[in-house]
Amino acid sequence: MYRALEGLRVLDLSRYVAGPHGTMLLGDHGADVVKVEPPGRGDPARGIDRFLGPPDSVFAMTVNRNKRSLALDLRKPEGLAVLKDLAAQADLMVENFKPGTMEEMGLDYATLSARNPRLILVRISGFGQDGPWAERPAYDAIAQAASGLMDMTGDPDGTPTMVGTIIIDYSTALHAMLGAMIALQAREKTGRGQEVQASLLDGMASMMMTAVPEAVALGRKPTRHGNRDRLIAPSNSFKCGDGEWVHVMTVTDEQFNRLAPLMGRADLLEDPRYATTLPRMQHCRDVEQITRDWIASLPHAEVLEALHQAGIPSSKINSIADLVHSEHMRVRRRVVEVEHPVAGKVPVIAHPLVFSDTPPIEGGRVPVVGGDSDAVLKDWLDMGVEKIDALRRQGVVA
């Protein structure tokens, strides 16, 4: 089957999550993604957990399918020379080193593009390539703290709270790959590549919606509201009579017009405190209590059936097990298996997009460190066996 990105050569120097997840999405669509890793240990993410036993972590398996691994020692001049030769053949190069590292290695964009004007260099960082914070190390939780997301998450009377999963790394991956696709389209018109920068902080700041104008233009301090929405009511999590939790949202007055009689409280629609959005938000605790009492009197299945029939946005607060074993996920084939040479078949979430004509690879393969070194050097550089063996004896390639 034809894959949309077949023929696209991607050199992936990135580690951990943001870069690897982004390049994995390209590999899912047939791009030849070569993951360049240090010999031996490889990407540090390979050692984060060992749920399935060595040599690799589940953490790394979830963001590195449909790639080939080249184990190359970039600390040696011969390794850097090989990397520069590969860059001369690449369409995209993706890196997330500390700002300045690429320049120190002689891999700045001016040098790379002089040899390969069509190359697109995607640079992922915590805080950007410049500015007072640029050289600070950053992971997802640090970006959550720096961006204000952590301050806005959690109970209003509690402490700032992390989101329950890595989220900024994943959103940065999407921003970075969007940038790569834009640069590829621009190259179709100009014939030249360019440098694309994405950072965890910039991406998260762009997702803060009204919080930024509230803080800058109105002088407000948006902060924690727990599971309550800041702008609409009722919109919160409620405990059902059987102990399960549901989340309910009434975004429009029309939705509340259907909720009130469902709760046996059609009288609320005649009360100016609840009839429209703004006063309902001003009296959100009262309207939430009415909703809470109704939901607490019924089992969750009955609550959700009534809400769904009325067209009111709602869901059981699922566990991960609830989600992955749901009929919905099964029908839509959202859980697939990847093949690992040692661990065997490992369940992961499928590519998140659905295409009518050029579907992504379903599942795929996760490489071991250096498992494809010989094949990559032959395919990309037409390097012979003797030259590869010589590099291996020097410890440059593994």
Largest sheet entry: 6 strands, parallel
Give the structural class.
alpha/beta
- The CATH superfamily of the largest domain is identified as Crotonobetainyl-coa:carnitine coa-transferase, domain 1
Helix content: 25-40%
Discrete helix count: 17
Strand content: 5-15%
Give the CA-CA distance, first to last residue. 33 Å
How does this model look, in words?
- The chain has a six-stranded parallel β-sheet with strand order 3-2-1-4-5-6, sandwiched between helices. Strands 7-8-9 form a three-stranded antiparallel β-sheet, with helices on one face.
- By secondary structure, it is an alpha/beta fold.
- Strand 10 and strand 11 form a beta hairpin.
- Helices cover 37% and strands 14% of the residues.
- The protein is elongated, with a radius of gyration of 25 Å.
- The longest helix is centred in the middle third of the chain and has 23 residues.
- It is built from 17 helices and twelve strands.
- The chain has two domains: 262 residues, Crotonobetainyl-coa:carnitine coa-transferase, domain 1 (Rossmann fold, 3-Layer(aba) Sandwich); 77 residues, formyl-coa transferase, domain 3 (2-Layer Sandwich).
Describe the secondary structure blueprint for this structure.
Blueprint (H helix, E strand, L loop, with lengths): L8 E4 L5 H11 L3 E6 L20 H4 L6 E4 L5 H11 L4 E4 L5 H4 L4 H7 L4 E6 L14 H8 L20 H23 L4 E5 H6 L5 H7 L17 E5 L5 E5 L3 H10 L14 H6 L1 H13 L3 H10 L4 E3 L3 H5 L2 H5 L3 E6 L3 E6 L14 E2 L7 H9 L3 H9 L5
Parallel strand pairs: 1-2, 1-4, 2-3, 4-5, 5-6, 10-12
Antiparallel strand pairs: 7-8, 8-9, 10-11
Helix pairs in contact: 1-7
